[in-house]
Design brief:
six-stranded mixed beta sheet, five-stranded mixed beta sheet, Immunoglobulin-like
Length: 335
């Protein structure tokens, strides 16, 4: 399961650090106590195995993106935890449909970019290398010094480092901030940045859903839309979940050229945690409107089995690719 791949990688990194003589630091010093607690919580949640769905393109694997979180490489410097991430900007074609190919600008060879994750108070270090052929950058939403704001261009072939404290807790994002910003974002340079609160949220099947649009003819109007990179993917390959189990969606709208879109869940209601900045929900609804770069945590569970749609209620956008389904299996079933 992709959600647990990150834990396997972390475990290997931890062993490497211990072999390198970090034993005296201890797991608590490395943030290991938090990670171990997070892992135990994850193990309490049943995540269905990934279905045998085709991967449409090497740049976009929506099922893998769904539950894949990058916790970075843990280091210990000056008495505090540092999470180090390596990000490379590049360009490559993405097959959106059997007949439509789109030249993307991307982070780490994927659309959307990796979902970076840290704990509030961690020191975050992002080593950014630009191999994309154009000037690019990484601008993080959150609180940080001006020198880490990512608005200065990084030329092709150059590397820069963004370093800041992970704050405040919530669901944030990053994207290229080089003009024209709409073009750089709509070409694929965006991703989620999650900062977990000091006291972890309750166990849940956690998933990422990033909405995006594709302007195929550079007329500043989108022709196709998608959740997690590929139009219609979750409609044709529903997301398997279990009945009665808490689902936590990290939802981000990165659609340029459309002022706002909504997120609607069929036959259910979800609790809303605005920008992930609260530990208690602000409302319960079955539809929520999001402007560009707006993001929220949505939590719910399904009382009944079956297949249930999710999509924007701007129906033309849904029909142009931003459509998906949950396939709810009995709580005790084996998928």
């Amino acid at each position: 399961m992709a959600q647990f791949d990150s834990w396997a990688k972390w475990e290997l990194r931890r062993r490497d650090l211990l072999r390198a003589g970090w034993t005296a630091v201890g797991l608590a010093g490395l943030g290991g106590t938090w990670l171990q607690f997070q892992r135990q919580r994850s193990l309490a949640i049943r995540v269905p195995p990934l279905p045998e769905a085709p991967v449409p393109d090497r740049l976009a694997s929506p099922m893998r993106v769904l539950r894949d979180f990058d916790y970075g490489t843990l280091k210990r410097e000056n008495g505090r935890t540092v999470r180090e991430f390596e990000i490379v900007a590049d360009t490559a074609p993405l097959q959106l449909t059997p007949s439509v190919s789109f030249v993307t600008w991307n982070y780490n060879g994927r659309i959307p970019g990796p979902t970076l994750r840290a704990k509030a108070g961690d020191r975050v270090r992002v080593i950014f290398r630009n191999e994309g052929g154009h000037s690019h950058s990484m601008h993080f939403h959150g609180v940080h010094p001006a020198e880490a704001d990512g608005v200065e261009p990084v030329r092709h072939g150059e590397t820069t480092v963004y370093e800041f404290d992970a704050e405040p807790f919530g669901i944030h994002l990053y994207h290229c901030h080089i003009a024209p910003v709409t073009r750089h974002i709509s070409k694929g340079l965006y991703g989620l940045f999650i900062i977990d609160p000091p006291q972890p949220r309750p166990p849940a099947d956690e998933m990422v859903l990033v909405m995006a649009g594709y302007d195929l003819d550079d007329d500043q109007r989108n022709d196709l839309y998608a959740f997690n990179g590929v139009p219609h993917y979750y409609h044709h390959h529903p997301i398997a979940v279990y009945q009665h189990q808490r689902i936590r969606l990290y939802v981000l709208n990165m659609i340029e050229f459309d002022a706002a879109v909504s997120f609607h869940l069929h036959a259910n209601f979800f609790q809303v945690y605005p920008t992930g900045r609260t530990l208690t929900p602000s409302q319960e609804t079955d539809i929520l409107t999001l402007g560009t770069a707006e993001r929220h945590i949505l939590e719910f569970s399904f009382p009944f089995t079956g297949k249930y749609m999710f999509h924007p209620h701007q129906d033309a956008i849904a029909e142009a690719g931003c459509m998906g389904m949950f396939d709810v299996h009995p709580a005790k079933a084996k998928v």
